[in-house]
Amino acid sequence: MKIARILHAGYVFESGATQIVFDPVFENPFSRNCHAYPDVRFDLERVRALRPDAVFISHFHDDHCSLESLDLLDRATPIYLYCLFDELFAMIRELGFAEVRPLAIDAPVRVGGFEVIPRRALEADVDSMFHIRAEGLNVLNVVDSWMDPETLEQITPYAPWDMVLWPFQTMREVDVIAPSRAERGPVTLPEEWPAQLQALAPRYVVPSSCQFRQEPWSWYNHALFPVTYRQFAAAVGEWLPATQVVRLNPSVAVALSAAALTPAAPLPWVRPVGEQDVDYEYDPDIVPPPTADIARHFAALTAEQAAVVRAFCDSGLQARYEEMELPEDSYFATPCVWQLSVYDHQGNAQHYRYSICGDTITPTEEAPTWITEIPAAKLYAGLALGESLTSMYMRISGAPVDADIVDDPLIRTLFDDAFAAYQAAQLARIKARAARA
Q: SUPFAM superfamilies, from UniProt (predicted)?
């Protein structure tokens, strides 16, 4: 069985004449603000010439399901997707793919000599894992999910697993969105990992899923990614002395057999750029720069784009907020004053203050108790381009320790009803290009 890394959670598996692809991303950056780490480029003409026997997509997040990447593939390629929402299937079919099939937990899919079995992840309403079987070998692709205890019990009888693709990075989204609540001190790996990996007893472990960072200037690169490849390899060496940790950088391929793991020819259409054995550099004491400084890194909005942002802040946000149902235990269920500060490309801020009580929100001049900051360019990206929360450089201050930051009014109005917003924006761009051609 040949296993090759594309990027992030993307892999190509080959057995005999059969080739299957998992979570393909042929873009850099991808998901708008994920920059490949290590750096790569793609030979898109060669990508267009690919004829995989099937593509498997673990879940709907835009760093795993990208319509821009799928648009490069032959439309006869069967697409298998784990998703509980019909909208995404419809979008992929609108791209022109004739076979777009839903995946069901524990229901095997056979493609040539492969058997691919979706396994339940901890958040079963979002994502899945993949159990891949061929040539008498068992490979577990955990993607970037957390292990469900019942699933672990279910798959332990397959131990020792021949290979496990394990998501080794534990990103600290809350720490960068609300820095005042950031954890301090040494980085520890999740306490459940040793027992989980020991139960699987893999021959080989690949640190998987996290092969990106933000822009070179971004403070997130030292605050969002706490785990290093070095730390993960050392920990696995302690937990499982007989297990070999294998790093697969983009394009790198290996041949897995019952007897050994050997190098294989790299993917010719993935082109590494520069140093590849890079590692993360986490700084728990980093001081985040002011949002005004961050905003200066982004280009000015056009007049039309700026109008979209102003309309949202002046009235659209209030309308969206009042349409939603606030959880009873929300911080905003009791009276408070919330300030939204939007910074333009010169670092100048426009402040909007709202008095909030439950589902009621009205403009006010009172002093705020909860402040949310965001660059105007990123607010526009969230409104029109489907940009995800962790790359928007949103900053929350004043949130009590016991308050859930996802109750933030901006987060709720942008993301409460935003399923597949990124893919919808992609589809609109692809259709516009086709219309112009």
A: Metallo-hydrolase/oxidoreductase
